[in-house]
Amino acid sequence: MTSLAAASRSRTPSIRLSITLLTAALLASGCAVKPTPLSQEETLTRIREDLAVVMAPQEPITTAISMHEAMARALKYNLDERVKLMETAVATRQLDLSHFDMLPRLVAGAGYTGRNNEAGSESLNLTTGRRTGESTTATDRHRRTADLAFTWNILDFGVSYIRAHQNANLVLIAEERRRRVIQGILQDVRTAYWRAVAAERMLARLAPLEQRIGDARRNATAMEEQRVQAPLQTLSYQRALVDTLRQLQTLRRELVAAKSQLGALMGVPPGQDFTLEIPAEGAAVDVPTIEAGVEALESFALMNRPELLEESYNARITADETKRALLRLLPGIDLNAGLHYDSNSFQLNQRWADYGARVSWNILSLASAWDTRDYTRAQEELVAIRRQALSVAVLSQVRVSMVQFRELSAEYALNVDQAGIEQRIRQQYVNSGTVGQQGEMEVIQAEVSALVSDLRRDLVYADLQNAYARVMVSAGVDPLPDTIPAQDLATLRQVVVQGLESWQARAGATAKLGDLAQMAASTN
User: Least crowded by CB within 10 Å, which of 1, 273, 395, 416?
Assistant: First the structure.
């Protein structure tokens, strides 16, 4: 009987251990995280939220869209610009939060402590080695405590101060990135607008010409069936018609999406139609010209390109990072003070205040001081070399964009002349009144040649506008002022017009690159 009881007692700890392990296993399996794909309801919720922004009501389009109107709408409704605007806002909020990191810590706390018996103790006489035999306590079974502690680490304050400076430069970097996006958007809008204008002009002329070719094909098929002419002559005529129709369909495929691309840049909801302000056929168009000198544009680019300014701000951040790394090598000084309360009735003073200071220094960190200095200097040199390489690329981009603009200006003048010649040839065919298959085919070919020449002229004009905008982007020109009084379309359109009209005067007033180089040499 005794052996059974002993065996039972020996099995009890193992049973408890097994139950404990089983309980822990069940809890662990219940807390396991498994991948959960999005449900259909979550996907539909996401789609509804996104479409609420994409399809948000906009100022209605009541008139034909001009280029300046398209730019104004892109500035207000383009989602890429909104993304950069929100990134700037986030960087600003981060700067606001970094200001709080410089504040000291002020921690308030309260607590309750209880136990089921007295926290008694005995004393030991160190001389005799005997216990006193008396049990005493100096703590209540139930206590309440409260603290208000102030702590300030001067080294952490210095690090946080430098970090705040870095966050301030990050705000400026976000703003430069937004400038770059705006410049790119306006360049894309300019190009897409004039391609859409070319498409609208050509698509209006393609439909009747395709109809005419279709009628000619049906007549040729009927003449082949009736054997009015030699079969080879009729088939050659049909082949020429099919080649011409294929050429027109290729043109249609290249142009049909131009208007949709412009609408996407403007932030117009998908499917919403709008009309373009199209210059009348034969009316004089505004051919862009650049009066500012190349050297002035190069100087303006070195002072205003967003990429170069971003690298300059990165140089500031790197220099501050050097200061942070060296600052961490210094000893830290902690200042502390606090107010305390303890409800323990055995204490003489239940409320008290304390204060103090502490200096701590990781002396082994001095071993990495030289390596830290060399590393941070290498980072600063890397940023400087990267900025210098980017400066060379910027100067090259200004030169290349100016060359491309001049070449396209000459090409556009030749295309204007060619389009005029093709129109006069077409008119001669129309006036001649030639009849028959060959005569009809020659008239159709003259129509197609005139159409292709007009299209090539308009597309080269769109490329010329793109080259004009590329010169502005390569020079870092902002078509918008630093501050915009309002965000309505009328105000945005007005500031766009003013910016595009005055950018050459602003860029041309900059000192030439050679003068800046001489000033830098004299300073050195």
Answer: 1
DSSP 8-class letter at 436: S
Q: What pLDDT is attached to residue 438? A: 47
Q: Give the 3-state secondary structure of residue 471.
A: helix
CA–CA gap between residue 168 and residue 261 (Å, rounded)? 37
Q: Kindly report the CA angle at 143 between 142 and 148, in degrees rounded to 5?
A: 160
**DSSP assignment of 122-166, as one string?**
--B-TTT--B----EE-S-SEEEEEEEEEEEEHHHHHHHHHHHHH
Cβ burial, residue 169 (10 Å; 0-12/13-18/19+): buried
| DSSP class per residue in 312-376 | HHHHHHHHHHHHHHHHTTSPEEEEEEEEEEE--TT-S-SEEEEEEEEEE--GGGGGGHHHHHHHH
Q: Could you tell me the two tokens for 418?
A: 């060619």
Amino acid identity at 331: P
Q: pLDDT averaged over the chain?
A: 82
Of 438, 53, 82, 78, residue with least CA distance to 236: 438
Greatest pairwise CA separation for the chain in angstroms: 143
Rounded CA separation 274/344 (Å): 80
Q: What are phi and psi of 107, to 5 degrees?
A: -110, 125
Provide the sign of the torsion angle of the four alpha carbons 389, 395, 399, 402, taken in this order: positive
* Residues present in the chain in total: 524
Residue 139: per-residue pLDDT: 86
145 exposed, middle or buried (CB, 10 Å; 0-12, 13-18, 19+)?
A: middle
Q: Helical H runs in 274-305? A: 294-304
User: Which pLDDT does position 7 carry in this prediction?
Assistant: 45
Instruction: Give the full edge-to-edge strand order of the sheet including 142-153.
Output: 105-114, 142-153, 332-342, 351-360
What was the pLDDT predicted at 6? 46
Tell me which DSSP letter residue 512 carries.
Answer: P
Q: How far apart are CA 170 and CA 87, in angstroms?
A: 10
Listed as ranges, residues in the chain with pLDDT below 50 are 1-10, 435-438
pTM of the model: 0.77
Cα angle 187, 455, 470 (rounded to 5 degrees) comes to 20
**Which tokens is 522 given?**
């004299």
Q: Provide DSSP, 169-180.
A: HHHHHHHHHHHH
